Amino acid sequence: MAQLLPLRLRDHSSRGAKGAGADERVETSALPVFDPALELTGPLSIVAPRRIGESDLAVYPLSLGASVFGWTADSETSLSILDRFAQLGGNFVDTADSYVGGRSEVLIGRWMQERGNRDGMVIATKVGRHQDNPGLSSVSIVRAVEASLERLQTDHIDLLYFHDDDLTVPLEDSLATVEWLIESGKVRYLGASNFSADRLIEARILSSTGLPKFIAIEPHYNLVHRAEFESDLRIVASAQGLAVMPCYALANGFLTGKYRTKDDLKAGARSVRAAEYVNRRGQRVLAVLDRVAREHESTVASIALAWLLAKRSIVAPVASASRPEQVDALMAAAAIRLTRAQMLDLDRVSE
Asked: Per the database record, which ranges form the NADP-dependent oxidoreductase domain (predicted)?
């Protein structure tokens, strides 16, 4: 595996690793859909951090999804997964207040407290789906953030996502509430999950009045689920300079190559969700992924994530692991440079 560059945030970032300074900027919005000059030169020796939109948050280009913590990964396994992630240079963890009823946040908070590494981590969480604080009313947002801070054992959230749009609440009211949370130091930046292009445009117009901007979005996007993002949403994200963090980056495990036939599917929730891709199109996609993985002496999962990372505006795909040893393939993706021909092959087979 390539040497992985340890990351630190803000005033911690200039010590110990070349190219990790807080002033380093990676302009993702200026990239083409993919870089036509890419050549097969082997894995990168150093993985550089990427900037999240207009923020001062610099992250490793892989966000560890924590939806499995306390669910398919028990407590001790979850802590081991986090340990392996940090060992390999990871610093960006994605969770939500609704994941396992808040248990995911509890485990992340315990891990940061025991390891004493809060200042070196970028924590993203989402509000709006927890049964105790549903929706995006002012009361729900404030109560949800306070509860998340307690579970995470921290005094601030680096990136707060609205988990879903809430059409019952004026968007300006939700943004004004976050403005207060930012001013109070409890939230640093704001992102949107499951928002339409039209609502992102409305939010940017509202931000011209002084309300907080969305700096990132988390759309459903991967090799076998492309149309939803590759339309108006991608255009708006590029135009607004939004950092894109694709969720379901491995299609519930399908893009790891784990599920190739109906016989591979079990009764688990993840395999049930992956079942929709076990068809002829899915097999064609896996066949090309297999070939490209062999060419790079890598894994199917790493290539699927590398395809995302070569796309314009993508900063850090969100991918999860149920065991510590699975983290290596996720992290390795950031060091892989796909060729123009490989990108075209993957684009064509997954259309």
From this structure: 62-350
Q: How far apart (Å, rounded) are the C-alpha atoms in residues 190 and 302?
A: 29
In a domain, 191, yes or no: yes
| Residue range 65-90, pLDDT digits in tens | 999 999 999 999 999 999 999 999 99
Structural domains in the chain (count): 1
- Looking at residue 303, its amino acid is I
Amino acid at 275: A
222 phi/psi in degrees, rounded to 5: -165, 180
Which tens digit of pLDDT belongs to each residue from 20-53? 333 333 333 333 455 444 444 566 778 999 999 9
For residue 123, being part of any structural domain is answered with: yes
Q: Quote the domain boundaries for residue 156.
A: 10-36+45-252+300-336
pLDDT digits (tens, 9 = 90+) for 178-209: 999 999 999 999 999 999 999 999 999 999 99
Q: What is the pTM of this model?
A: 0.87
Torsion over CA: 69, 190, 232, 28 (sign): negative
Q: What's the pLDDT at 30?
A: 37
Sorted by sequence, the CB contacts under 8 Å of residue 195 that are 6+ apart come out as 162, 165, 203, 214, 217
Question: For residue 295, is it within any domain?
Answer: no
Residue 118 lies in a domain: yes
Which pLDDT value is given to residue 42?
A: 62
Residue 237 region by backbone torsions, left for phi larger than 0, else alpha for psi between -120 and 50, else beta: alpha
Long-range contacts formed by 269-278: CB under 8 A, 24+ apart: 269/72, 270/72, 277/224, 277/251, 278/254
